[in-house]
Amino acid sequence: MLTFSNRSIKNLIKVNPILVFFSYELQSHMNNLQLLNLPYIDFTIVEGRRTKKRQKHLFDNNFSKTLNSKHITGDALDIYPCINGKVSQDLEHFKLLINIATDFINSKNLPIFNGFMKWSWDMAHYEIDNSKYYNTPNNIITKLTK
Question: What structural domains does the chain harbor?
Answer without folding.
Answer: 6-145 (3.30.1380.10)
